[in-house]
Structures are given as C-alpha cells and as structure tokens.
Design goal:
2 copies of one chain form a homodimer. Chain A is built from 9 helices and no strands. With 214 residues, chain A is mostly helical. Chain B binds a DNA duplex (30 and 30 nucleotides) through loops.
DNA sequence: CCGGAAAACAAACGTATGTTCGTTTAGCCG
DNA sequence: CGGCTAAACGAACATACGTTTGTTTTCCGG
C-alpha cells in the first residue's frame, strides 16, 4: 500500500524503494551496494540514511510491504469470487499468476532473498508466507472433501502449484509473445487439470535409477 | 593440518567444491567470502588459489559440472525408457524430480545464481539449460501430435512443469515426512494430469481485476 | 634418502563496503 | 522575510573483501 502524500521527502523515499527493487532484482541483495543505489536515485550515499535505517532494514521493509500487498490482494480476490470451493480455488490461482506477472520483480525478491534476511527479520516474513500457503492448502482440502479434487497430499500439491505459477516471474517479459490473460488461462488449465478428480494413474514402481555420477 | 589423504591434493579440490556448494546454497554466491570457504575447508584463504582460478571461475565450474551431469542423467533416463512418447515424457519428468531431490543444493545454485555469472560465463550455461528445456518441449510436442496430450503452448507448458518440479528443491529435506518415491509419484501425477488430453475447460473472461494498488 | 614439485602458510595490497558525522542547502509556516 | 526542520552534501572511518606474493612445509618418485 502506498500512501500518496504530497510531501517532497516522501517522494525520494519511494524513489529509493523502486530503485532498490530494480537493483536487487537484477543483481541480488548482497551484490547491490548502497553507492550504486544512491547513484540510481541521484543522491549521495550518506543521504540514503535519511530514509532507511540500514541496508538490511530496507530489504525487510520491501519484503514486508510486498507480502502484505500479496495477502490483501489474495483476500480481495477470494472475497470477490463465489463461495463455492472450486470458484474460490480458481480465484486464488488466477490472482496468484496475475499478481506475479504484474509485480515480478518484488515477487522474485521476496522468494529468493529470504536467506539475506537476519533471523529476526525473516520470522515475520515467513509467517506471512505460511499464512498465504495455508490459505491454498485449505482450499485444496475443501475441494477434496467435496469430491471435486483428487490430491494425495494437499501440502505437497500446494507447494507444487505455487512453484509452477510463481515460475512465470522468471521468464515473463511485458509485451512478449503472450498476453497476461493467455498466460493466466494456460496456467489455470495446467493447475486445475493437475489436481482434478479425473486422475491419471501413476505407478511409482518404474522409476529411473539412473542418477549415478562420478 | 594433517591430511589423512589416500592419494593426492585433488582431494582438497573436491573438498573446496563441496564446501562451496554448501556455502553458496546457504548464503548465496555474493554473500559467501573466500575466507569463510577456506576456513570450512581447513586451509588459509590464499591456498584456495592453488585449486581455483578466481571466485567467479569457481562458480562457473560448479555450474558447468552440474549442468553436464543433469543433461547426461536426463539422456540416460530417456535412453532407458521405452521409445513411446508418453513413456519418454514420464521418464523425463521422473528423473527431473529425482535428480532435484538428490542434488538440491547444486540445483538451487544453478537456478538462482545465474545472475552472479559474468556474461561470458553465463552464455554456455544458458545454452545447456536451453538444450534441457528444448528436450522437454520436444517431448510435449510429440505427445501433442500423437493426441495423447493437450497443451495450448508447449513452451509455456514446459516452463510451468519445470518450475513445478524444480520447486521440490526449495522445501525438501532428506528424512522428512515423505519418501522421495512418494514425492516423485505425486509430482508425476500433477504434471501428467496437467497436460493430459482430458482437459479442464478454462474461460479466461472472469479474471480477478483486483490488483489495484494506489 | 634426496631433490623437485605441489600445496599450504603468513602477510600484505588495493579497493569496496556499510555507515557515521558535522555542515550546508532547500522548503515550508507564520 | 526569518527561522525551523528535514534532507542532501562531502568526507571520513573501520572493516571486509578478492587476490598476490615470497617463503616454508609436505609429499612422492627415483
């Protein structure tokens, strides 16, 4: 959530946030240095400290804001959809893909820079992520109870679906071959087919035992 | 340092590689420093340079070895499976999950430290990755032509499947609740259902338009 | 047992890094 | 216009980093 104040100092704070997102996404948090960030914003390195507490604190705030936005976007999507389990699941998945297309840089950071957070900072972020995951797990359980879905393990299925849908932010480029709507539709199809009751029987007995390496 | 070596100093080179994999996986390449790596191996920082060329060169070699192993494991799995398209696809997917369970640290590095590679080093790695992806795309196209699969866009489907299956290396811990076989089986089911000809019809018209942020 | 090569050592070099500090500039309110 | 506050400046500090160097130790074949 971004507050729109007319204040001038708040404007540089936002510029810092956006430049940081760009740089962290491009190079990673550890590889981004504050001199580069300051240059991108157009101020001196020391001036950053009028707006951030520390480099680590900046990352934490970016992640926190992002996770809050993701959670509230998800809740809004669920509230806007019919209460029926499959419609709720569909809404969750569609909003997930769309959000990841629109804010791929922040998503990328939130997913791959968790290890850069100090333990005390990682805890609340992880809690929010778990809350998000649990919402999906709950929907999958509802659908399974209603006989609309067939999943052997809802947690594994949730992780797998999230990984698949989150993957779009690693290759998506705005203005590419496919429109966001097409991408969302196709991922919805893959995801819903994957957990649908029309199950594909898989025998686990014939696995390739060919992982030998020197 | 009394080294209980059986043969030669090639053993320290291997120790460096393994320690590097562990540290890069835990902290990221940029956040890992050579003093820490040397301490982990039990030598002085400068001694590393008897075995590596530069820090960047170490990362490149790790990635190159990993990609070569992944590619040859994949080719071996395909060669061991029946030539029929669906069996080939199944073998590819199963071997992918299994490999990612067994060597999750290297996989994690190869996937998420590409941006730490200098451009000249990234190129051959990216080429190998594309070769791997293209193998899957080819199998999906074969299956679609044979009428066994229904995928709107094979490239998107391949990316989505790979993202889903690769996701296991972010949460899997050896000795956890589920055996590797169970994990492979369930992911196979999700993946094959997802692209199966028994398609779930998805209308793209009702998408949540709830991504507004002020 | 010896001599040469491979590898480890201790120490340093040059630079880059996050952060601090005292000072100066710019914007707003009365 | 005058004064207060927030923010930018420029310079520095202390440390951490990748890497190099000269020297010493370890290992193995002849």
């Amino acid at each position: 959530m971004a507050r729109i104040t007319g204040s001038n100092g708040e404007r540089t704070a936002e510029a810092i946030r956006q430049a940081a997102i760009r740089l962290i996404h491009r190079q990673g948090f550890a590889a981004m240095n504050l001199r580069e960030l300051a240059a991108e914003v157009g101020i001196q390195p020391g001036s950053l400290y009028n707006h951030i507490q520390t480099k680590q604190g900046l990352l934490f705030e970016l992640m926190q804001e992002h996770m809050q936005d993701l959670l509230s976007a998800m809740e809004a999507a669920l509230a806007a959809a019919p209460a029926e389990p499959m419609a709720q699941l569909r809404a969750f998945l569609a909003q997930h893909v769309l959000y990841h297309l629109e804010r791929k840089q922040e998503v990328y950071i939130a997913n791959f820079e968790l290890r850069a957070l100090e333990k005390a900072n990682a805890e609340p972020i992880l809690a929010m992520r778990r809350a998000y995951e649990n919402r999906l797990i709950g929907l999958l359980e509802e659908g399974a109870r209603a006989g609309k879905l067939q999943v052997a393990d809802t947690r594994i299925a949730a992780y797998a679906l999230l990984a698949m849908l989150t993957g779009v932010c690693t290759w998506y480029r705005p203005g590419g071959r496919l429109s966001p709507e097409e991408i969302v539709a196709q991922h919805l199809e893959l995801a819903l087919n994957g957990v649908s009751a029309a199950a594909f029987e898989c025998d686990t007995t014939v696995l390739p035992a060919t992982l030998g390496q020197a």
